[in-house]
Amino acid sequence: MTSHVKDLKLAVLGEKRLAWAGRDMPVLEIIKNDFKKSKPFKGKRVSACMHVTAETANLMLTLQAGGADITLVASNPLSTQDDIAAALVKNHGLKVLAIRGEDNKTYYNHLNQALKNKPHITMDDGADLISLLHNKYKNQAKNILGSMEETTTGVIRLRSLAAAGKLMLPVIAVNDAKTKNLFDNRYGTGQSTLDGIIRATGLLVAGKNIVVAGYGWCGRGFAMRARGMGAKVIVTEVDEIKALEAAMDGFSVMAMKEAAKVGDVFCTITGDIKVIDKEHFKVMKDGAMVCNSGHFDVEINIPALKKLASKINYNVNANVDEYILGKRRIYVLGQGRLINLAAAEGHPSSVMDMSFSTQALAAEQVAKSAGKLTIKVHNVSEKIEKRVAMLKLKSLGIKIDKLSAEQAAYLSSWELGT
Ligand code: ADE
């Protein structure tokens, strides 16, 4: 199998950027050095379907240091950093099939190649690879020791596969680890989503009505950061508890139908479909901007917007399309795909350090399991979570207290009371 990347000449830039990102990933570096000695992936083929970024490159090099033979494909047609893909192929001998802007056919062609390579371990960001395996390569499932899943949407898909009794291999829900979602989803998405919106539009955030659809960890992070830059943040939710939480966190909470009339910028982060729909576009203000930071490009009903529009001006600014609706203009950022990766560079390296250290250690667990993991969706072990958190604290120069023997005994006793 040959790699398929945009231009190998971009490797010079890609190499610099992946090294720069690596500076901010000290925990992964420690794990990489351990893997160099222990070689947990010796003789193992790993197929990963992830956003091809500088941070992912560092994860791949960590697995490679542990002996893995890696094939990397994109988990989103618009998130690939072509210079990084080139550097991985040219300087590190990885097989990479990913080109920013690839069409759907090429995207799936790449995923097919990753499975035709008969992996022993797979890694997904959104469950596209595993889903393809369950549809088309079922006979390979028995040879796969396990798979890791990076994102909320992917874990939801896998849990529904398991609930339907159709899951064919063990999966580790890396997304659900505290060392992943409390940090990556909240601080990573929070910051990088704003970064993407600003890079695409040059928006002055202060004073704008920013509507955040969804108050999960990603939505919370984005709402918090948008408020920090002076936006008047409105949250929309379907979950009563999360809506209350948003209200008590001090945000305005309302139905999308009302928010649609007042928002200047809209960002969907729900994991569901048609969160912004025809009826909402109809009442939006002239100049409203809509974008998405959820995994798939289904949260904004762009086909409905296309039908409403009398004219579309593509790329009026990089990553901005203008839809004309009578006398109003609505701007769609990043084609409704993940704005933080389509218009910016994804989460900062320092936070991906935690997510990808968790990934690397989960992959090591799978490699060492020798096929003994049960077929279900597993959580990341507490041992791995504690190790990642401890190493991250250390890298930040933070020391914390330890329970005394007396305190530990107190916490585990039921006799002691008033
Ligand atoms: N998902 C969000 N940000 C990312 C990044 N920088 N690298 C890989 N996956 C990501």
What is the number of beta strands? 15
Give the CATH level 1 class of the largest domain. Alpha Beta
The global form is globular
Mean pLDDT: 97
Q: Give the neighbour order of strands across the main sheet.
A: 9-8-7-10-11-14-13-12
Query: Any guess at the CATH architecture of the largest domain?
Result: 3-Layer(aba) Sandwich
The SS-based structural class is alpha/beta
Counted by DSSP, the helix tally is 17
Outline the biggest β-sheet.
Answer: 8 strands, mixed
Q: Could you tell me how far the N terminus lies from the C terminus, measured between alpha carbons in angstroms?
A: 69 Å
The CATH topology of the largest domain is given as Rossmann fold
In the predicted model, the low-confidence regions spanning at least 5 consecutive residues are none
Strand content: 15-25%
Give the helix proportion (percent range).
Answer: 40-55%
Give the names of the bound compounds: adenine
The CATH homologous superfamily of the largest domain is named Adenosylhomocysteinase-like
- State Rg: 22 Å
Total tally of structural domains: 2
Topology (elements, then pairings):
Elements lengths: L10 H13 L2 H13 L6 E6 L3 H12 L3 E6 L7 H11 L2 E3 L6 H13 L4 E4 L3 H9 L9 E4 L2 H12 L7 E3 L4 H24 L7 E5 L3 H12 L3 E5 L3 H9 L3 E2 L2 H7 L2 E4 L9 H6 L4 E5 L9 H7 L2 E7 L2 E6 L2 E6 L5 H4 L6 H20 L8 E3 L2 H14 L9 H7 L7
This protein binds adenine.
Give structural notes.
The mean pLDDT is 97. The protein is of the alpha/beta class and 418 residues long. It is globular. The strands form two sheets. It has an eight-stranded mixed sheet, sandwiched between helices. Strands 3-2-1-4-5-6-15 form a seven-stranded parallel sheet, sandwiched between helices. β7, α9 and β8 form a beta-alpha-beta unit. It has helices at residues 11-23, 26-38, 54-65, 82-92, 104-116, 128-136, 152-163, 178-201, 217-228, 240-248, 256-262, 278-283, 302-308, 339-342, 349-368, 382-395, 405-411, and strands at 45-50, 69-74, 95-97, 121-124, 146-149, 171-173, 209-213, 232-236, 252-253, 265-268, 288-292, 311-317, 320-325, 328-333, 377-379. It starts with 10 loop residues before the first helix and ends in a 7-residue tail after the last helix. It folds into two domains: 8-180 and 347-395, 3-Layer(aba) Sandwich (Rossmann fold); 187-342, NAD(P)-binding Rossmann-like Domain (Rossmann fold, 3-Layer(aba) Sandwich), CATH 3.40.50.720. 46% of the residues lie in helices and 17% in strands. The chain contains 17 helices and 15 strands. The structure holds adenine (ADE). Adenine is lined by residues 51, 53, 55-56, 188, 341, 346-347, 352.
